[in-house]
Specification:
3 helices
Length: 67
C-alpha cells in the first residue's frame, strides 16, 4: 500500500466515523471536524502522488527506462 492510499484510507475512515464530533460534541463544529480533516488528508495524498509522479517523469526523461 502506498502512502497516498494509506492517507486516503485514513481520511475516509475519519470521515465515515465522525471521530472528533463523537468525542467532542459541539466543540469542533467549525474547525477540526472530520470533514475538514478529510480534506487536509486528501491534499496530503495528492501531494504525495505529485512527488512520486515528478520522480517518475524525471526517471523517464533520463532515458533509463525501456518503454
Amino acid at each position: 500500500m502506498s502512502v497516498m492510499d494509506a492517507v486516503s484510507l485514513i481520511g475516509g475512515v475519519i470521515g465515515a466515523m465522525h471521530v472528533p464530533e463523537k468525542w467532542f460534541p459541539g466543540a469542533v463544529d467549525r474547525c477540526l471536524n472530520s470533514h475538514n480533516i478529510m480534506h487536509v488528508l486528501v491534499v496530503l495524498a495528492v501531494y504525495s502522488m505529485h512527488q512520486v509522479t515528478t520522480l517518475d517523469l524525471a526517471w523517464m526523461a533520463r532515458g533509463d527506462c525501456q518503454l
